[in-house]
Design goal:
This protein has 417 residues and is an alpha/beta fold. It has one domain: Aspartate Aminotransferase, domain 2 (3-Layer(aba) Sandwich). The chain is built from 15 helices and twelve strands. The strands form three sheets. Strands 1-9-8-5-4-2-3 form a seven-stranded mixed β-sheet, with helices on both faces. Strand 2, helix 4 and strand 3 form a beta-alpha-beta unit. Helix 10 crosses helix 14.
């Protein structure tokens, strides 16, 4: 399925200027101040970390929760959030999501309220959780916002990350804000901020050669996600990289690399413009797909503004999702079944059921290309290929149902055009 004009599933906007800034920063004595990033995010207290996962770990430690305290967290999200909770000495308590927002369903949190000591609200895909209701339900508990997907998303004119006691961001290789790694802990409470500051000060710095290796690796990843390299090389090696979890950060006691901090600051200067271009493309794609039946689209609700980090669609079931993904790839448009295995991973952390919407989302979710550097013609192509692949699969299923015994095969996902 290699083809030089394959549209990558997402972009890695890390250019030559970023690489040059990373090389210069690698030999400095310390990372630059995060003040420029903090201003963009409206943050009073902000601290570099080596990853978003580490930022959550540090925040939970700073909150001084009891050992093995339960922390409410949506089942359907990046599994590294669940493991960071466990590594901080707490236990993830899984709550369900709302199908339309793909964030915590308030009723599910209400049922868990008396059994948890804190809440991690995940603004997933750039969607915004129902913060008004969640804060009311969680009154008296520390609320942490996972804003790794949601920088510059808004709820009622207020930026995500400003509602809870703290929030955290990620600059990992394939995030909206890709500096090759690193993260940011934003604290909205002075006492907690001082505790996090002390924790961050104790993190170990990295050496210049490790930094050069990391910066060069990020430049290579950026190249792999550009046409024509992606279609010829990046797409074929992607399955192996995913199986080996090469893009997943490790939780360690190291500080942010100086090159990553420098690039995050550099990208902050153009980030708002990038978000606006990506929103424009996403709204164009949304308009092209409006009216398609049996698909949940990422429609903003009133009073909320998404940054549209990704463009998720929920299809009828896993068979339809896989058939559409395969059909689109045959037409040289790549997609992603993001966190399709999160339920299995959560079971290893104690999940025993009770989150049916999350389980369904893991089986039905597909993200479509929508990023800032795509042209209007590219977006039209994504929409056309998606609709054609969906129609092809549904026609195949409809025809097969006329054959005796086919209904059972359809339910088992055996029919793929």
């Amino acid at each position: 399925m290699t083809h030089p004009q394959t549209i990558p599933r997402f972009a890695v906007p890390y250019g030559a200027g970023d690489y040059w800034a990373a090389l210069r920063a690698a030999f400095r004595q310390s990372a630059p101040s995060p003040a420029g990033v903090a201003r963009l995010l409206g943050a009073k207290w902000a601290y570099w970390t080596s990853s978003g996962r580490q930022a959550l770990w540090l925040i939970l430690r700073a909150l001084r929760l009891p050992r093995e305290a339960r922390v409410a967290v949506p089942l359907y999200c990046d599994g590294s959030v669940h493991t960071a909770i466990r590594e901080a000495g707490c236990e993830p308590f899984f709550v369900d999501i709302d199908e339309k927002t793909l964030t915590i369903e308030p009723t599910s949190l209400a049922k868990a309220r008396e059994r948890v000591a804190a809440v991690v609200v995940v603004h997933y895909f750039g969607h915004v959780a129902r913060m008004d209701r969640l804060l009311e339900i969680a009154r008296g508990l520390p609320v942490i916002e996972d804003t790794a997907h949601a920088p510059l998303s808004y709820h009622g004119g207020r930026m995500t990350g400003s509602f809870g006691v703290a929030s955290f961001y990620s600059f990992a290789s394939t995030k909206y804000w890709p500096a090759g790694g690193g993260g940011l802990a934003v604290i909205n409470d002075q006492e907690t901020a001082e505790r996090v500051r002390r924790e961050v000060a104790a993190l170990a710095p990295t050496g210049p050669w490790e930094e050069l290796k990391k910066a060069t690796g990020q430049a290579a990843k950026s190249l792999l996600f550009r046409r024509p390299v992606y279609g010829l090389l990046g797409r074929p090696i992607r399955p192996s990289a995913e199986r080996r979890r090469l893009l997943e950060p490790l939780l360690d006691g190291k500080a942010i690399q100086r090159n990553q901090a420098a690039v995050a600051l550099r990208q902050a200067a153009v980030f708002r413009e990038r978000v606006e271009r990506q929103r424009h493309n996403s709204l164009h794609l949304l308009a092209r797909l409006a009216g398609v039946s049996g698909v949940v689209l990422p429609v903003e609700r009133a009073g909320v503004r998404y940054n549209y980090y990704l463009f998720p669609v929920l299809l009828a079931d896993s068979a339809e999702r896989d058939a559409v993904a395969a059909g689109m790839l045959r037409r040289h448009v790549d997609t992603s079944r993001i966190h399709y295995d999160v339920v299995e991973r959560a079971r290893m952390l104690g999940y025993r059921g009770g989150c049916p919407v999350s389980e369904a989302a893991a089986a039905r979710m597909l993200t479509l290309p929508n990023y800032a550097c795509l042209s209007p013609a590219d977006i039209d192509r994504v929409a056309t290929v998606f609709l054609d692949a969906l129609e092809s699969h549904r026609c195949c299923v409809s025809s097969a149902l006329a054959v005796p015994g086919a209904e059972r095969r359809v339910k088992q996902g055996a029919l793929v055009p």
